[in-house]
Amino acid sequence: MVVEARLRRCQRRRVDASAVTEEEGGRAVMETSTEEGGGAYACKVCYSDTNSDEEYNYDLLSNKGPLNWGNIKEEWHLCKNGTRQSPINLQENRAIVVFNSSGIQRNYRPANANLLSTDHDIMVNWTENAGYILINGTQYQLVQCHWHSPSEHTINGIRYDLELHLVHRSLNAVAVIGLLYHTGNPDQFLSTIEDDLTLMAANITNVTHLGIVDPEQIAGLTSNKYFRYNGSLTTPPCSENVTWTVFTQQKTAGREQIKLLRAAVNGDVSCLNLAY
Ligand SMILES: [Zn+2]
Predict the structure, then answer these.
(1) How far is the CA of 18 from the centre of ligand 1 (A)?
(2) CA atoms of 146 and 149, how far apart (whole Å)
(3) Which of 120, 146, 148, 153 is catalytic?
(4) How many helices (H) and strands (E) are present in the chain, helices listed first?
(5) CA nearest 137: which of 165, 111, 175, 181?
(6) Interval between CA 38 and ligand 1 midpoint (Å)
(7) Pairing of strands 89-90, 154-155
(8) What start-end ranges are recorded for coiled-coil regions in this protein (predicted)?
(9) How far is the CA of 16 from the centre of ligand 1 (A)?
């Protein structure tokens, strides 16, 4: 199950023979094979070869890749022997998943935030109180949000082009809200940071002060249907006891916006030229 979770970060998916998929933080490699059913599958990842000091990456062929995360540090052992590792495929008929139609209580507030390009993702980090969510009476403070592309979770086996994680913390636990996007109309919030992402893709900067950012503008939720399960952080140390809420409502983001997000991770501008 752990290996399955790690593999989901670089899942092969059916694509046109001329198309490729990319995964953040990875080296520009492409492997294509024909599997049962005759379809062409590709897994493409982009990362800077020069970044040798990174602690981990998403390259399945690397000794710092997802299949080896649990061996890199003793404190990352849950990455290889945890029992509730994320991400997972969300299905209504799986016992582990509760399909809920009641609301989750969000009490967000606009607050100052920075935009950061890290080795692994693009993150909005609030520097003051941005509000909280309530789950079963426990208050979790919103800390940051970041994007993964392609999505980490799948729903009924379908992988999406982009996934947003809103990360919240209580005194001793973590709760993450996941939102999935498919390619379509541009996302309103991403439109406001395109210039910043372009600078990050060009390695001109890796942090920008955004001013006041409303978390509700990023989430853009109008539905309260979600999957709820108890999982883990999806990156080392892969800590468990993370309450996941993945909304079934999907957002859209423009193709160029998704390419820009990928290129801005680790300033790998070469990703801008790649199809996905
Ligand atoms: Zn995440």
Answers:
(1) 29
(2) 10
(3) 120
(4) 7, 17
(5) 175
(6) 32
(7) parallel
(8) none
(9) 27
* Cβ(224)–Cβ(103) below 8 Å: yes
Element (H, E) at 112: strand 111-117
3-state secondary structure of 169: strand
Stated pTM of the model: 0.77
* Total residues found in the chain within this entry: 276
Distance (Å) from CA 36 to ligand 1 centroid: 31
- Centre of ligand 1 to C-alpha 185, Å, is 23
Question: Under DSSP, is residue 26 helix (H, G, I), strand (E, B) or coil?
Answer: coil
* Mean pLDDT per 10-residue segment, the chain (276 residues): 51 28 27 26 35 74 84 86 83 60 82 92 96 93 95 92 96 94 97 95 92 96 85 86 90 96 74 49
Burial of residue 151 (CB within 10 Å: 0-12, 13-18, 19+) is buried
Q: Which residues contact 6 (CB under 8 A, 6 or more apart)?
A: 66, 67, 69, 79, 85
DSSP H or E segment with residue 241:
strand 240-253
Residue 120 catalytic?
yes
H or E element, residue 69: helix 69-72
Single out the residue of 97, 101, 25 nearest to residue 62, CA to CA.
25
